[in-house]
Amino acid sequence: MKNIYRLIDHSTIRLLNHVAEPTIFGEPNNALLSFAIDDAIATAVGEGAAPPTIRFWVHERTVVLGIPDSRLPYLEKGINYLRGEQCNVIVRNSGGLAVLIDKDVLNMSLILPNKKEFGIHDGYDIMHQFIQYLFKDKTDRIDAYEIKGSYCPGDYDLSIGGIKIAGISQRRVRNGVAIQIYIDVSGSSFERASIVKNFYEWSIQGTETKYEYPSVNPNVMGSISDLLNETYTVQLVIEKIENEIDMSKPDIHRLLPEEEETFRKRLSQMHKRNEKVFV
């Protein structure tokens, strides 16, 4: 049995590649949709209607804000700066802080049932171990600890030699868990971090805040292509992951009709949350 099956202790995995899908359930496939669809999948997986699911997603340049970012004192100025940099901006339905994704950043969601059977740290450990396994032919140095100066810092920042390549978050919905990771595959991580750094400077402007926002240092962010000295693309990384999944199992590459109802509700909630911020 392949490593990913051992890690999650399930014999079937549904694989959903939404990278090139223009729409999902008839809605434009953008970052706002991605968080709603993960909630819908987590609900179905948690109820046993769908098997554990791996979903890939990539979007055009978008700064995904966390809920604490929506309370920045000069948020409107920060958003105007981002739009001047041709960035889409959304607020996700979870904690954490600002992350910049673009066509060279692979987002992967590993969605599992039975959230009561494993703690938050277990979910992070599963993703960390899988990424270690995925690139074991190139390095044994993918570590998990907070990288000071990175954007959206956390205890499970993934790094190589102290340079952050990926960040992990979790979204727990009913009895399902979506473990989400972004991986800087290629392109300029320095530029991405510089944009987020400038966003915070525009949004804070020296004001003292109750919440501690990061002082971003672009030099501590990098891509796996640069740090592993390989020419990786999002598609090549997807193929590496697919090679670790038993693709012979039938009928595991589609969304279920019952997931659409939950998706519609979650998407409406996402729109309402964003309307409150972007008035």
Topology of this protein?
Elements: H1 3-8, E1 14-17, E2 23-24, E3 27-28, H2 31-46, E4 53-57, E5 62-65, H3 75-84, E6 88-91, E7 99-101, E8 105-113, H4 120-134, E9 142-144, E10 158-160, E11 163-173, E12 176-184, H5 189-204, H6 224-227, H7 234-242, H8 257-277
Parallel strand pairs: 1-4, 5-6
Antiparallel strand pairs: 2-3, 4-8, 5-7, 8-12, 9-10, 10-11, 11-12
Helix pairs in contact: 2-8, 3-5
Protein architecture, described:
- The chain has 279 residues and is an alpha+beta fold.
- It has one domain: Bira Bifunctional Protein, Domain 2 (BirA Bifunctional Protein, domain 2, 2-Layer Sandwich), CATH 3.30.930.10.
- 35% of the residues lie in helices and 21% in strands.
- It has eight helices and twelve strands.
- The strands form three sheets. A seven-stranded mixed sheet has the order 1-4-8-12-11-10-9.
- Helix 3 links the parallel strand 5 and strand 6.
- Helix 2 crosses helix 8.
- The longest helix is centred in the last third of the chain and has 21 residues.
- It is globular and about 50 Å long.
- The relative contact order is 0.20.
